[in-house]
Amino acid sequence: MTVYAIAQLKMTDRAAYDRYQARFFDVFRKYNGRLLAADEQPRVLEGPWPFDKLVMMSFPDEAAFLAFSNSPDYEDISRDRKAGAQATVLLVRGFAPAG
């Protein structure tokens, strides 16, 4: 089942985050993910949103996401992401209608 990784980011060190971002696609393209959105100015329609950026990715299944997120390559670049932004990351299962 398709899963979606949703990251909400609050920048703390833009230079560190930019280093992460510059290397992200070299790692990401090795896995079966798709980048669906990366928006630094999403339109908030309701409620508070104390973040600076939203990123949405899809993966064929949870195993594919975990292969990406636990890979040595991603762990290496994620140091800059963690230094550059506080994050709330969600992993959401896709919807499969019954029947």
From TrEMBL:
Domain DUF1330: 2-95
Listed Gene3D superfamilies: 3.30.70.100
Pfam families linked to this entry: DUF1330 (PF07045)
Name of the protein in its database record: DUF1330 domain-containing protein
InterPro entries: Dimeric_a/b-barrel, DUF1330
PANTHER family: BLR0684 PROTEIN (PTHR41521:SF4), PTHR41521
The organism of origin for this protein: Bradyrhizobium barranii
